[in-house]
Amino acid sequence: MRIESLVERVRINLSYMATFYYQQISMIAVWWLWNIPFQLFEILFSLLLFKLLTQALGAGAATLYGGDFMAFLISGLMVNTYLDCSLDVYRDAVGSLYLGRMGVGGLLLSMADYLRLAGISPLVYIFAIASWYYLMHTVMFALYYIIGVTFFGFQISPHTDLGLVALTLVLGILATSGLGLVSASMYWLASSYRGVEPIRWLIRVMAPVVAGIYVPRDALPRELAMLGNLLPHTYTIDAVRKLLLAGAGLNDIIGDLRVLAMQLILIPVGLLLLKYSLELERRRATIY
After folding, report:
1. pLDDT at residue 60 is higher than 70
2. Are 125 and 115 in contact (CB under 8 A)?
3. 248 in helix, strand or coil?
């Protein structure tokens, strides 16, 4: 009986998610179709800028990046597309709960109020929005790869284990999602709806430097490298680069995977904090 009840509950929540998907598609799909050409040119010219910069710096710069600066840069940006999404999407979804408006019977309700009246958990809405964002950022991941191959000679090793790449990306996304959930919980716990959320802001400022997205970690001062050791970005990008560019195997990245697995503890912590944050808003009966 419990199994049947659980299956029915999952079915209902999936139907809710399908509804939210339809809402997102109707609002965002046209925007994406219009913006993809602009995204293509933005990625192309930003990569071209970095290529020209490293050429201006001379052969020493290329040596610092293992002889292929563009492969180093493109692989890092591809991976960071997902990690950036994981850091942002949950807080953005929480914000849309209270900033979004729905017309019901001549009244304008926030999405949070609408879900409450409909008896739908806000967590279902948040994870529906999150999964949709990941689909959209998969497009960005693909654009980086296509532009890299077409214009900059980006190539992955013929020995690359794509299954291992996928596993590493999933672990990195989950570990970074833990930080994203903690950041989202600050919406009410720290009243970050007023503007900048400090956790997300700090990580987004630090990660491009200390996680090795743009600069090899071997070139970093010791203090910055130690800061990078705290972020899941560092281990995800390092492992995926080894897999894509050097054709590394499991033994070569097992250390990175272990650290990412340990950082998964942030997910239940983030979920508990987010649930408490949403409950806090309900108890306060905040007018927003």
Report:
1. no
2. yes
3. coil
What would the pLDDT profile of 152-167 be if each residue is shown by its tens digit? 999 999 999 999 999 9
What confidence tens digit (pLDDT) does each residue in 199-242 have? Answer: 999 999 999 989 999 888 888 899 999 999 999 999 999 999 99
Burial 87-110 (b: 16+ CB within 10 A, else e): bbbbbbbbeebbeeeeeeeeeebb
Comparing C-alpha atoms, which of 180, 128, 182, 129 is closest to residue 17?
Answer: 128
**Torsion over CA of 218, 219, 225 and 228, rounded to 10 degrees?**
-90
One-letter amino acid for residue 120 of the chain: I
**Number of continuous H segments (helices) and E segments (strands) in the chain:** 11, 2
Whether the CB-CB separation of 253 and 163 falls below 8 Å is answered with no
DSSP string, 108-128: EEEHHHHHHHHT--HHHHHHH
Predicted TM-score (pTM) of this structure: 0.83
224, amino acid identity: L
d(CA 152, CA 102): 46
Q: What is the rounded distance in angstroms from the CA atom of residue 16 to the CA atom of residue 125?
A: 8
Segments of 100-225 assigned E as strands: 101-104, 107-110
d(CA 31, CA 19): 19
